[in-house]
Design a protein that fits this description.
about 160 residues; mainly alpha; 2 domains; two-stranded antiparallel sheet; about 75% helix; rod-shaped; CD1247_N
């Protein structure tokens, strides 16, 4: 850019030394053209300076982005390692949860429908009404107290087997 500015300045000085702008109409026109060239060079200098500033700014952003990518990759790696540790912890928690579920399922019994023979699981609350509906054939049947006690006894025996 500096080279173009120097050339325009040289031409303008040459024009002024020759007194072209004062001598003729053509000289006035050449003088105006040299003024326009000088304005273009000034504008081009401004654009070049802005371009250089933007290039510096983009390089700074690129560096920051690289730092951010490295940071996020490190966090992702830590999270993967943490999730692996969590999986081990979750397994032990699942065992705890299973034990809790076993406590809740203490009142679940196997019931066989007398009509279709389908065996299904029912909770103790289903027996409170004495009438049970088979989920397979939708037949309503009654459980007498003797049957309920037998189911409870069978369930207790399966949870607490007696040692021989």
């Amino acid at each position: 850019m500096k080279y173009i500015n120097e050339k325009v300045a040289y031409l303008k000085g040459l024009s002024e030394g020759m007194k072209l702008a004062e001598a003729s109409d053509e000289g006035k026109m050449i003088g105006q053209l040299l003024d326009v060239l000088e304005d273009i060079c000034d504008a081009l200098d401004g654009v070049t300076e802005a371009h250089d500033d933007l290039q510096d700014y983009v390089e700074m952003i690129d560096d920051d982005l690289t730092d951010m990518e490295d940071f996020l990759i490190d966090i992702a790696d830590e999270n993967i390692a943490f999730e692996d540790e969590d999986d081990e912890t979750d397994d032990s928690l699942d065992m705890i949860d299973t034990e809790d579920e076993d406590d809740e399922n203490d009142d679940i019994y196997e019931v066989e429908c007398p009509h279709c023979g389908h065996v299904y699981l029912a909770d103790f609350e289903s027996f409170e009404a004495d009438d049970v509906i088979c989920p397979e054939c939708d037949t309503k049947f009654s459980l007498n107290e003797e049957t309920i006690e037998r189911l409870k006894q069978a369930e207790d025996d399966s949870h607490h087997p007696e040692e021989e």
